[in-house]
C-alpha cells in the first residue's frame, strides 16, 4: 500500500519539475469523429492524459517522445510527439471479441479475457420479441438457459440454468438489476435494458456465493451517452390469439357419445344448441406499448429518463393488464476522481385477473348447454325428459357455466414497485478504485376479490328463486369481499476496492475485494374477508363504520426477515495477453440458519488460454480467435425451507364450559445443522472465431452436482412429532453440453446477413438419497384425487419432475375397458391396481434438450429476422382430458373413434363413467419447435438534416408457427413454475398466443 | 477525501468481523420461537401445554374414524355399516378381522397416541421451567399430563401389547433416545409405567368437585383411581381393582341411562372421565365423530358407519331401556322428535354419537364418557367375584340392572355371575369403545366372533393389532412384529 501511495504522490509531483511541454492533439476514428476517453501516455515523461468529448487532448511530454494512444475497441498506436496539433487516427479493432465486455458481478471484464461461461444478450435482442418480461424474450437465445414461459399477462417465466438442482428450495435465478439483488424482473421495462448477462458456470457464479446455485442474471439498464439530447420513441400495437385450439365434439357428437357411455338415451339427437365454449370465453386480444426516453450528457452529467406504458386486453374475456414504468438513471462526475451513479425506477401495475379454470370448464362443458337460456338466465348442465337442456332437468355433469364463472369473478390487483440505488466510484489511485453501492426496493400490493355468493348460487340453480337461498342456507353469506395488502422493503449495500495494474507490460493483474450485506425485509401481508357487503363497490369502505361483526377471516402476517453478510474477493491475472487465471472466493453468513451453521465459503477458479495468440497461430487467416477455458466452483442455495423451532398454537379445547382454552405444544423436531444446498461444478469451454470472424462459436461441457439437497423427513413415529423436518438427504446431478454457432457476413454495403443457432442438452438425475424416513413430495394433482408426480425413496435414478403414474395397456377388445400393467406385467382394470406397487416413472416434465435458431439479413433499408425455439424429451400430461368421468365434453377426434361392439379397431376405449386413474394414456410428448418471432423492418430514408434523425417501422409476428406432438393447446406449460406442481400438466392453463404487431421507432 | 473512504471501508470491515454474527440474529415473526419460553411463564401459559393434550382427544386420527374402526367395528357389537361398496378406506377388513400391518386405521391410532404422548412430554418438560406460574397449578397440570399419558399408553398396550416407552423428549441425534423410540418394551413394563404415572397423578390431582364449571373435563383424583382400577382389571390384580374402585368416591349412578349421552347429561354424577365437545361456534368437537356414524342415505345426515349388529340387538333382555338409548332403529322417532325415515341405508345406527342440535356438523356436541361410575361398579363386582366374594358382587351388578329397568340377576354361582357381569358390561357400555378389548381380556373373543357371522378370530394373533409396518421399518432389528402378522 505504501508503495502505491508513494507512486501516486510521485505522479502528482513529477510534472512540476519535468522539462516537458504541452503537446496538443486530437484523436479521431476512421470517419473523422473525435474519440472521447482515449488514453494518451508518454512513457518517458511518465505522464498521461485523456481525450475530452471532442477527442482533444493536452499532455506534458517532450517533442519526439513516443506517445501511446489506446482506447477500448480500437487498435492502440504509438506515435512520436510533435509540436503542432497532432491528428491521430485510431483504427477500429478488427477483433470484435476484444471490444465486447461482459458483466461479471462487481465489475466487468473484456469478453476475450473472461475465463467463465457467460451469455450476454444485447438490448436489441431483448426488445425484438414484443413481450412483457425480458426473460421471455431471451428464450432460445442462450445455450444452456431454458425458459418456460406463459403468455398470461404479468406472469413470470421459469428460467432454469444448466439444470435443476433442488427439489424444495428456490428455483429462480438471482437477478441483479443495477446492483439490486432481487427475485423478479416484472417491474423492468425491457426497453430500458442495455444488457442481460447470464452467468452460467460455477466459476462465474461463485462471487454470488450462497445465492448463486440457480444461476445469476445481471441486468444493466441504460445510461445517457453522447453530448446532445437524444429523444427516442417506440410504439407498437398488436393483436393476439391462441396459437392452437383443440377441436371439441359438437352437440350431436356429444349426445351420441354420452348416451353410449351411459348406455341409455338420455340425450336427444338433433340438439338445438351448439355452443363453442372456448369461443364464448375468449376474444381477440390486443396490446400496445409506448415508450419515450430522453438521454444525453455533458462533461459532468449523463442522464437518461424513460417513461413506458404497456396495456393488454388478454384473450380471456375480462382479463386486462396494464403497467406503467418510469426510470431515471443519472451519472454525475463530481470531480475527476469521484463519480456518482444514481438510478431509480417506478413501476405500477393494474390487473383484473380471471380464473384460468374457465379454460378447463370451457373444455369440459357440454356444447348442448346454451350460454344463456331464452329468459336470460345462465345455461346449466341439466337435461330434461326430452333429452334437451332444461332449467329444471337433472344435472348431467358438475361443470359450471364458464361464461358465468368469468362474469361473476370480480377481482382487481394493483402494485407499485420502487427500485433504485446510488453507486459511488472513487479513484483513490490511478490503479485503485473504491466503489460503494446501495440499492433498495419497496413493493406494495393491494387486491380485492368480490364473490357474489348468493347470485352465483342462483345462476347455477335457475329453477330456484332468491328466497330459496335464505331458506336452504339460513346462516350463509350473501356475498364475500376479500381484501389483501402486502408490502416489503429489501436493500443491499456493497463496498469494494478494485485494483488493476499491468506490471512489466505482461502481467495484468486485477484484484477486487469487498463486503456486502443484503436484507430481505419482513414481508407483511394482511388478508381480510368480510361478508354481506354493499352490492355497490363504491360503498365497501365507508367512513366511521364498524365492520368487525361481518369479518369472517382476518389474517395479519409478518414473515421472517432474512439477512446476509458477505465478504468477497476476486483475483484476475493475465500473462502476456494469453494465459488467464481467475480466482474468486465469497464468504456468506445467512440468518436463515442456526448459529453454528450459518457461515459458508464459496471458492472458485477459472483458467483460460488464448491459443490464437500463440506464435503458431498468430498469422493464421482462418483462425482469428481460439480460446480454451475451464473452471471449478462451489455454490449455495440458501432459499430453502425454514428450519426454526416454534410453538404450535391453536390446539384449543373447551374444558367443560363455553370458554375456549388456548392450547400450545411443540410439534417439530428440527435439525439444527440445516444449511444451504451445495452445488459444485466443473466446466470446460472453447470459444472460437474463424474465417475473418465470420464464424463464431462456443462449445461448453459441464458436470454439476448438488450434494445435499433438502427434502422433508419425518421423525420416528413414536416421537409423536407430526410436522416434517427438512434435512439434507439427496444428491442431484446435472451433466450437459452447450453449442452455439453463428455466421455473420457482409456481402456488400447494401447486404449483410447472419445465421446462428444453439443447442444444449442436460441430463438431470436424482443420484442418491440417504436412508431416512422421507415425507414424499406428491404433486401434479388433477383436482379429482389423482396425482401425477412423486419424489420419494423410489425416485433415485430418475430426473426431477418425473411423472409417476400407471402404464396404460390398451383396452380390452371384448368390452373396451381401459387396462393397465400391474407390477407383475399383467393387464388389469383400474379398480384392482395397487397404488404402491403398480405405478411407474415415465419421464419428466423438464426437457432433455432445447435449441434455438436465428437468422436475418439487412438489405439497404430493410431488415429481416427470424427466431425459433424448440425442446425435446419433456413429457406433458393432458390434465384437462384426464378429468372426464361422466357428462363432460370430449374432443372431436374421440367422438368419432371409440370402442363399440361394432368398432373393435377403434383407437380409443369405450366411453366410461368413472374418474380415470392417472396413466400414460394421458401422457404425451412435449416436443415442439416454434417460430418465436419474425420481424421485418424498414428504415425511412431521411435527410441527415431533418428534425427526425431516424425512423424505423416494423411488423412483427410472434409465435406464428408451431409443430408439436401434443394434442392439447400448448406443450409449453409453465403452470405454477414448480416441477412438482402444475408444471407440465395442461389443466387450467393459459394458451400460448400468436401475435401480430406493428410498430415504429423514432429518434430525434 | 480518499482517507475518508479508506477509513469507512476499514471501519465497516471491522464492524462486519466484529459483530456480523449478532447482525445475523434475526428475530422470527411468523411463528413463536421456542426460545421465548418467557411468554408462557405465567398461569395461563402453563395451562396451554395441557390444554393441547385435551385437544388431541378431539382429533380425527385419535378418537374418530380409525378409533371407531379398531375399538368398535372390529367387535361383535358393530358392523361396518354404510353402503356395501363404501369401505371407509379399511373398515371392511377391520370388520372381518383381515387387517395387516399396513392398515391405515391401525397406523393412525398408533401415531395419534404417540402424538398425544409427545404433547404430554412437552408439557412435563416445560412446566418445571415456568417458575412464575403458581406452583400448585403446575403440580396439578403435571398430574393431568401424567394421567393423560397413562391413558394413551393404556390404549397402546391394549391395542399392540408392549410398545416403546417414550418417557421424555427425545434429543435428535442421541443414540440412547433413538433406541428408546424404536425398542418395544414388554406389556408388563408398559403397565408398570402406566401405574407409575397414575400414582403420580393421584398424588397431584384434586377431586372432581374442586373444578369449576368451565373445567369439568379436567381429570381428577377419582379418574386416576378409576383408570388404575381398570389397568389392574386388565392385569387381573383383583384385590387392586377392589381397592382402587373403593377410592373412587363422590360419584353415583345417573338416574336416566339415555340422558347420559345427550347434552343434558354432560358431567352428570356418574361421569368420571369425559371427552368434552362443544358444537356452538366456534365448534370444538370430536372431528367427524357424529358424521361418520350418522344415518346414511335419503333423510340421513352422515356416512353410516359403525352400525349396531344383530348380535348386540339380541343381547338386550326384554324391557332393557338401554337398547333404544344405544341404538337408532330405522323408521323410529328420536327423543328430539326427529323421524328416521325408512329410506336410510342401514337398519341401525349408533345413538350415542347422535347430536340433536348439530346433527350433520363435522364437530358436534357429542361427548365420549371413557370412564363412568357404572363401570367402576362392574369392575368391582367382577373383581369381588374373582376373589370368591360372589355374594358381595351380586348387589353391585343389580344396581346397574335396576337402573336399566331390569330385575335382579338370576345368577348365583361364581361362574354364572362372572358371565352375567361380562354380559352386563356389554349392554351397559356398548359403543363406548370397550367391547373389542373386553372380549380379548375375558377370553370370550374366539366364541363371540364365531357367533358373529362366523368371523375367524385366530387365538394367539388377533388379541393384538399388528405393529404398523412403517414403524417396524424405522425400528429395523430393534423391534419385531406381533405373532402371526
UniProtKB/TrEMBL annotation, chain A:
It is found in: Cell outer membrane. SUPFAM superfamilies: Carboxypeptidase regulatory domain-like, Porins. Its main location: membrane. Keywords: Cell outer membrane, Membrane, Signal, TonB box, Transmembrane, Transmembrane beta strand, Transport. Residues 111-216 form the TonB-dependent receptor plug domain. It holds the Pfam family Plug. It is a multi-pass membrane protein. Residues 382-941 form the TonB-dependent receptor-like beta-barrel domain. The keyword Metal-binding does not apply. It comes from the Bacteria. The keyword Signal applies. GO terms for cellular component: cell outer membrane. Residues 1-18 form the signal peptide. Belongs to the TonB-dependent receptor family. This is SusC/RagA family TonB-linked outer membrane protein.
Automatic annotation (TrEMBL), chain B:
It is found in: Cell outer membrane. Residues 1-20 form the signal peptide. InterPro entries: SusD-like_N, SusD_RagB_dom, TPR-like_helical_dom_sf. Residues 22-233 form the SusD-like N-terminal domain. Keywords: Cell outer membrane, Membrane, Signal. Its main location: membrane. Belongs to the SusD family. This is RagB/SusD family nutrient uptake outer membrane protein. It comes from Flavobacterium geliluteum.
Amino acid at each position: 500500500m505504501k508503495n502505491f501511495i508513494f507512486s501516486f504522490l510521485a505522479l502528482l509531483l513529477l510534472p512540476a519539475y519535468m522539462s516537458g511541454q504541452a503537446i496538443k492533439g486530437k484523436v479521431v476514428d476512421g470517419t473523422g469523429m473525435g474519440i472521447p476517453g482515449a488514453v494518451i501516455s508518454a512513457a518517458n515523461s511518465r505522464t498521461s492524459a485523456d481525450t475530452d468529448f471532442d477527442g482533444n487532448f493536452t499532455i506534458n511530454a517532450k517533442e519526439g517522445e513516443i506517445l501511446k494512444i489506446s482506447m477500448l475497441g480500437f487498435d492502440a498506436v504509438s506515435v512520436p510527439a510533435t509540436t503542432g496539433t497532432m491528428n491521430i487516427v485510431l483504427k477500429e479493432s478488427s477483433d470484435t471479441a476484444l471490444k465486447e465486455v461482459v458483466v461479471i458481478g462487481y465489475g466487468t471484464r473484456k469478453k476475450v479475457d473472461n475465463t467463465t461461461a457467460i451469455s450476454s444478450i444485447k438490448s436489441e435482442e431483448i426488445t425484438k420479441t414484443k413481450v412483457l418480461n425480458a426473460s421471455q424474450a431471451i428464450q432460445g437465445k442462450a445455450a444452456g438457459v431454458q425458459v418456460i414461459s406463459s403468455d398470461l399477462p404479468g406472469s413470470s417465466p421459469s428460467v432454469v440454468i444448466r439444470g435443476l438442482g433442488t427439489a424444495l428450495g428456490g428455483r429462480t435465478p438471482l437477478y441483479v438489476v443495477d446492483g439490486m439483488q432481487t427475485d423478479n424482473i416484472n417491474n423492468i421495462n425491457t426497453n430500458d435494458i442495455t444488457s442481460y448477462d447470464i452467468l452460467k458456470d460455477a466459476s462465474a457464479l461463485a462471487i454470488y456465493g450462497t445465492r448463486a446455485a440457480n444461476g445469476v442474471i445481471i441486468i444493466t439498464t441504460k445510461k445517457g451517452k453522447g453530448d446532445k439530447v437524444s429523444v427516442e420513441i417506440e410504439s407498437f400495437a398488436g393483436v393476439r390469439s391462441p396459437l392452437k385450439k383443440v377441436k371439441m365434439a359438437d352437440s350431436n357428437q356429444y349426445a351420441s357419445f354420452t348416451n353410449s357411455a351411459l348406455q341409455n338415451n338420455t340425450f336427444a339427437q338433433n340438439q338445438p344448441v351448439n355452443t363453442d365454449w372456448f369461443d364464448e370465453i375468449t376474444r381477440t386480444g390486443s396490446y400496445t406499448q409506448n415508450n419515450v426516453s430522453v438521454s444525453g450528457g455533458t462533461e459532468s452529467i449523463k442522464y437518461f429518463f424513460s417513461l413506458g406504458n404497456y396495456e393488454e386486453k388478454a384473450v380471456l374475456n375480462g382479463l386486462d393488464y396494464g403497467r406503467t414504468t418510469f426510470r431515471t438513471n443519472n451519472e454525475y462526475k463530481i470531480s475527476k476522481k469521484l463519480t456518482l451513479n444514481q438510478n431509480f425506477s417506478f413501476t405500477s401495475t393494474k390487473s383484473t385477473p380471471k380464473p384460468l379454470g374457465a379454460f378447463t370448464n370451457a373444455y369440459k362443458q357440454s356444447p348442448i348447454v346454451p350460454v344463456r337460456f331464452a329468459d336470460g338466465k345462465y345455461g346449466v348442465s341439466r337435461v330434461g325428459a326430452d333429452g334437451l337442456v332444461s332449467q329444471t332437468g337433472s344435472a348431467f355433469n358438475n361443470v359450471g357455466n364458464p361464461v358465468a364463472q368469468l362474469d361473476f369473478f370480480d377481482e382487481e390487483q394493483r402494485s407499485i414497485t420502487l427500485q433504485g440505488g446510488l453507486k459511488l466510484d472513487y479513484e483513490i489511485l490511478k490503479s485503485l478504485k473504491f466503489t460503494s453501492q446501495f440499492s433498495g426496493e419497496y413493493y406494495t400490493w393491494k387486491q380485492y376479490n368480490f364473490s357474489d355468493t348468493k347470485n352465483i348460487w342462483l345462476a347455477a340453480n335457475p329453477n330456484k328463486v332468491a328466497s330459496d337461498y335464505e331458506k336452504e342456507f339460513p346462516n350463509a353469506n350473501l356475498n364475500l369481499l376479500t381484501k389483501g395488502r402486502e408490502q416489503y422493503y429489501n436493500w443491499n449495500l456493497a463496498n469494494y476496492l478494485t485494483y488493476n495494474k499491468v506490471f512489466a507490460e505482461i502481467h495484468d493483474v486485477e484484484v477486487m475485494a469487498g463486503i456486502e450485506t443484503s436484507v430481505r425485509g419482513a414481508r407483511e401481508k394482511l388478508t381480510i374477508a368480510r361478508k354481506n357487503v354493499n352490492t355497490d363497490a363504491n360503498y365497501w369502505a365507508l367512513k366511521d363504520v364498524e365492520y368487525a361483526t361481518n369479518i369472517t377471516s382476518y389474517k395479519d402476517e409478518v414473515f421472517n426477515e432474512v439477512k446476509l453478510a458477505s465478504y468477497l474477493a476476486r483475483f484476475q491475472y493475465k500473462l502476456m495477453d494469453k494465459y488467464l487465471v481467475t480466482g474468486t472466493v465469497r464468504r456468506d453468513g445467512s440468518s436463515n440458519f442456526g448459529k453454528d451453521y450459518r457461515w459458508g465459503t464459496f471458492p472458485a477458479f477459472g483458467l483460460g488460454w488464448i491459443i490464437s495468440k500463440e506464435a503458431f497461430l498468430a498469422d493464421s487467416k482462418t483462425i482469428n480467435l481460439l480460446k480454451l477455458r475451464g473452471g471449478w466452483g462451489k455454490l449455495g442455495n440458501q432459499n430453502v425451507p425454514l428450519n426454526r423451532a416454534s410453538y404450535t398454537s391453536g390446539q384449543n379445547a373447551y374444558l367443560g364450559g363455553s370458554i375456549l382454552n388456548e392450547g400450545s405444544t411443540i410439534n417439530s423436531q428440527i435439525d439444527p445443522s440445516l444449511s444451504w444446498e451445495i452445488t459444485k461444478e466443473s466446466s470446460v469451454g472453447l470459444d472460437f472465431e474463424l474465417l475473418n470472424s465470420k464464424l463464431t462459436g462456443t462449445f461448453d461441457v459441464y458436470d454439476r452436482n448438488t450434494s445435499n439437497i433438502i427434502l422433508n423427513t419425518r421423525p420416528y413415529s413414536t416421537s409423536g412429532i407430526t410436522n416434517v423436518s427438512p434435512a439434507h438427504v439427496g444428491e442431484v446431478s446435472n451433466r450437459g453440453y452447450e453449442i452455439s454457432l453463428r455466421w455473420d457476413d457482409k456481402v456488400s454495403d447494401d447486404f449483410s446477413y447472419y445465421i446462428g443457432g444453439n443447442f444444449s442438452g442436460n441430463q438431470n438425475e436424482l443420484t442418491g438419497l440417504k436412508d431416512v424416513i422421507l415425507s414424499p413430495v406428491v404433486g401434479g394433482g388433477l383436482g379429482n384425487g389423482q396425482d401425477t408426480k412423486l419424489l420419494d425413496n423410489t425416485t433415485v435414478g430418475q430426473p426431477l419432475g418425473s411423472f409417476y403414474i400407471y402404464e396404460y395397456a390398451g383396452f380390452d377388445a371384448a368390452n373396451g375397458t381401459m387396462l393397465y400393467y400391474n407390477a407383475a406385467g399383467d393387464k388389469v382394470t383400474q379398480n384392482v391396481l395397487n397404488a404402491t406397487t403398480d405405478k411407474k416413472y415415465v419421464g419428466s416434465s423438464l426437457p432433455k434438450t432445447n435449441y434455438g435458431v436465428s437468422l436475418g439479413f439487412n438489405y439497404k433499408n430493410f431488415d429481416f429476422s427470424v427466431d425459433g425455439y424448440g425442446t425435446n424429451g419433456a413429457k406433458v400430461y393432458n390434465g384437462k382430458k384426464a378429468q372426464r368421468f361422466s357428462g363432460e365434453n370430449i374432443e372431436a377426434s374421440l367422438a368419432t373413434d371409440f370402442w363399440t361392439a361394432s368398432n373393435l379397431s377403434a383407437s380409443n376405449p369405450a366411453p366410461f363413467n368413472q374418474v380415470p386413474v392417472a396413466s400414460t394414456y394421458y401422457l404425451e410428448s412435449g416436443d415442439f419447435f416454434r417460430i418465436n418471432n419474425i420481424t421485418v423492418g424498414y428504415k425511412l430514408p431521411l435527410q441527415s438534416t431533418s428534425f427526425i434523425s431516424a425512423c424505423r417501422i416494423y411488423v412483427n409476428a410472434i409465435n406464428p408457427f408451431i409443430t408439436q406432438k401434443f394434442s392439447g393447446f400448448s406443450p409449453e406449460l409453465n403452470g405454477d413454475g414448480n416441477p412438482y406442481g402444475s408444471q407440465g400438466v395442461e389443466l387450467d392453463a393459459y394458451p400460448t398466443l400468436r401475435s401480430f404487431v406493428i410498430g415504429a421507432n423514432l429518434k430525434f | 477525501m480518499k482517507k475518508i473512504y479508506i477509513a469507512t471501508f476499514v471501519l465497516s470491515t471491522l464492524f462486519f468481523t466484529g459483530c456480523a454474527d449478532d447482525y445475523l440474529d434475526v428475530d422470527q415473526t411468523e411463528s413463536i420461537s421456542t426460545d421465548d419460553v418467557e411468554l408462557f411463564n405465567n398461569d395461563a401459559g402453563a395451562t396451554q401445554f395441557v390444554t393441547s393434550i385435551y385437544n388431541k382427544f378431539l382429533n380425527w386420527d385419535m378418537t374418530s374414524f380409525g378409533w371407531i374402526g379398531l375399538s368398535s367395528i372390529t367387535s361383535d357389537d358393530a358392523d361396518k355399516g354404510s353402503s356395501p361398496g363404501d369401505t371407509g378406506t379399511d373398515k371392511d377388513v377391520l370388520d372381518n378381522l383381515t387387517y395387516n400391518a399396513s392398515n391405515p386405521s391401525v397406523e393412525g391410532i398408533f401415531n395419534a397416541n404417540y402424538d398425544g404422548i409427545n404433547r404430554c412430554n412437552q408439557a412435563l418438560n416445560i412446566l418445571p421451567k415456568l417458575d412464575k406460574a403458581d406452583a400448585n397449578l403446575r403440580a396439578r397440570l403435571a398430574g393431568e399430563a401424567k394421567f393423560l399419558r397413562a391413558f394413551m399408553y393404556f390404549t397402546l398396550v391394549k391395542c399392540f401389547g408392549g410398545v416403546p416407552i417414550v418417557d421424555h423428549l427425545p434429543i435428535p441425534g442421541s443414540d440412547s433416545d433413538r433406541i428408546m423410540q424404536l425398542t418395544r418394551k414388554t406389556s408388563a413394563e408398559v403397565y408398570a409405567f402406566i401405574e407409575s404415572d397414575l400414582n403420580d397423578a393421584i398424588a397431584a390431582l384434586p377431586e372432581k368437585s374442586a373444578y369449576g364449571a368451565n373445567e369439568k373435563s379436567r381429570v381428577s383424583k377419582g379418574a386416576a383411581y378409576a383408570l388404575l382400577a381398570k389397568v389392574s382389571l386388565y392385569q387381573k390384580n383383583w384385590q387392586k381393582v377392589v381397592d382402587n374402585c373403593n377410592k373412587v368416591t363422590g360419584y353415583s349412578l345417573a338416574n336416566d341411562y339415555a340422558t347420559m349421552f345427550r347434552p343434558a347429561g354432560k358431567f352428570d354424577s356418574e361421569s368420571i372421565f369425559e371427552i368434552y365437545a362443544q358444537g356452538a361456534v366456534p365448534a370444538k368437537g370430536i372431528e367427524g365423530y357424529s358424521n361418520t356414524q350418522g344415518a346414511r342415505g335419503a333423510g340421513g345426515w352422515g356416512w353410516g358407519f359403525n352400525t349396531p349388529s344383530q348380535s348386540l340387538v339380541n343381547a338386550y333382555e326384554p324391557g332393557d331401556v338401554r337398547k333404544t338409548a344405544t341404538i337408532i332403529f330405522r323408521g323410529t322417532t328420536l327423543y328430539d322428535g326427529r323421524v328416521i325415515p325408512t329410506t336410510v341405508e342401514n337398519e341401525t345406527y349408533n345413538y350415542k354419537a347422535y347430536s340433536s342440535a348439530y346433527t350433520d356438523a363435522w364437530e358436534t356436541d357429542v361427548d365420549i364418557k371413557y370412564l363412568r361410575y357404572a363401570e367402576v361398579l362392574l369392575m368391582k363386582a367382577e373383581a369381588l367375584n374373582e376373589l370368591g366374594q360372589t355374594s358381595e358382587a351380586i348387589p353391585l351388578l343389580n344396581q346397574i340392572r335396576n337402573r336399566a329397568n331390569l330385575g335382579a340377576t338370576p345368577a348365583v354361582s361364581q361362574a354364572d355371575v362372572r358371565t352375567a357381569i361380562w354380559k352386563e358390561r356389554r349392554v351397559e357400555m356398548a359403543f363406548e369403545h370397550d367391547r373389542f378389548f373386553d372380549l380379548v381380556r375375558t377370553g370370550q373373543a374366539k366364541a363371540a366372533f364365531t357367533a358373529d357371522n362366523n368371523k375367524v378370530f385366530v387365538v394367539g394373533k388377533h388379541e393384538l393389532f399388528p405393529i404398523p409396518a412403517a414403524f417396524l421399518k424405522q425400528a429395523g432389528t430393534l423391534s419385531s412384529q406381533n405373532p402371526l402378522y
